[in-house]
Design a protein that fits this description.
The chain is mainly alpha-helical. The chain contains 13 helices and 6 strands.
Length: 280
């Protein structure tokens, strides 16, 4: 919101306070008396309004625009932000006194990419909610492969991006189309720090040799998609096993080397059935 509009929304105004103020309007702080007021994206609030917000939090009083009377309010404040307010304070973008006034109980919610185990639960939750919104659209439950691809995606747009992906799939009536159109490729998310060419080529050749079984009835028409998935899994398993072995199964260090989150690494270890090899 523009600064002037935001101020009037929070603190209200008297009739005639400014051009277009044809009637008195009570602000959110007054309306929320004895209740809870949620301030979304508090880090975007202009510094001038931060000072007024601080005064309300300290004294419980404010003055509506165009009024000479103080209004008293008793409100619980919940504020959210996707910014690092500590860094913003150092840069002079956020008031230090307001930061400590708000930071009484701090709840940190990790980004979606760091909690992939939540994705199946979120999918189920939002699909249930969207049944009403998209009443004429029906879509089957996502396959294991689709869920896996969604789990392995980085989600730079966080939960909002996941919501948009699910809506797209419902509108298109296809999980594959919805996922592909949004460039979600189910990437493994591993990037070795050393030159991987020799390892990757050896693994790919090894897998292709496995397919060259002249006695296999599927030899003449094996699935390229399925074969690619199997090769990718073999590469992932070999690479993760190699890094875990080199780090002495220090999973925190291994996740940093592989450039994936710690939880994603745990998921991979379980999914790919990677076991620690004890050397005698």
């Amino acid at each position: 919101m523009p600064e002037g509009l935001l101020e009037s929304e929070l603190f209200g105004f008297e009739r005639g306070a400014f051009t277009g103020a044809e009637r008195k309007m009570r602000g959110k702080f007054e309306l929320a008396h004895k209740g809870v007021l949620f301030l979304d994206e508090i880090g975007d609030m202009p510094l001038s309004l931060q000072a007024k917000l601080l005064r309300v939090l300290q004294s419980g009083e404010f003055t509506p625009l165009g009024s000479e009377k103080e209004v008293t309010t008793d409100v619980w404040i919940i504020a959210s932000t996707n910014q690092d307010l500590g860094k913003n304070v150092k840069k002079g973008l956020f008031r230090e006194d307001l930061y400590y006034r708000l930071n009484i109980i701090r709840i940190f919610i990790p980004p979606l990419r760091e909690r992939p185990e939540d994705i199946p639960l979120l999918i189920d939750h939002y699909l249930t909610n969207y049944k009403t919104q998209f009443e004429n659209k029906k879509i089957p439950n996502p396959s294991h492969n689709i869920i896996k691809r969604l789990i392995l995606y980085d989600w730079p747009g966080n939960v909002r991006e996941l919501q948009n992906v699910l809506k797209s799939c419902i509108v298109l009536g296809s999980w594959e189309k919805g996922v592909d159109d949004l460039s979600i490729k189910g990437k493994p998310g591993v990037t070795p720090t050393s030159d991987p060419k020799g390892l990757d080529n050896a693994l790919i050749v090894g897998n292709l040799l496995d397919l060259k079984d002249e006695n296999s009835p599927e030899h003449a028409s094996f699935s390229l998609k399925k074969s690619t998935e199997n090769i990718t899994k073999r590469i992932e398993k070999e690479l993760i096993s190699f890094v875990l072995d080199k780090t002495g199964w220090n999973r925190t260090k291994a996740s940093k080397i592989l450039k994936i989150s710690y939880k994603t690494l745990l998921y991979k270890i379980s999914e790919l059935d990677i076991n620690r090899q004890h050397k005698l």
